[in-house]
Amino acid sequence: ELTAAISLPPYQALLDFRDLMVKPQVRSSLPPIPPDAAWVESLVRGVRASIKAFVDTEVDWETLERATFPVHAVVGTLSNAVFELRMRKFAAHVSRTTTQTFEGVHHVMPPHRAAVDEWMVTLEEMWRSAD
Question: For residue 49, which of 20, 43, 59, 84 sits 20 to 30 Å off, Cα-Cα?
Fold first, then answer.
């Protein structure tokens, strides 16, 4: 779905990509994107490059399993379900990963913007635990 979305003309690619980041029932409530916004093409180029990097890169799980640094992974309950699956898979391989689910937020309005105070407390705790 991502490959199909990002192969569209820039504005439609951005709309389709954005919609894939959230659960279907959230899509109609997403903020509009102006079709003539100057930043659309550069954002789509960045999204295309990111997706290509993810597709072209093999995750080195053995190296990640040896990691000793803390990682805090978050997901919003309104994000596409694939994000929670990715978070759980990562946490299963990296021993110092803590996870947190934020109610009522999604990938387009992420927890670090919607729940700043809670996010900062969590980050401060994680930083204190770092070697």
Answer: 84
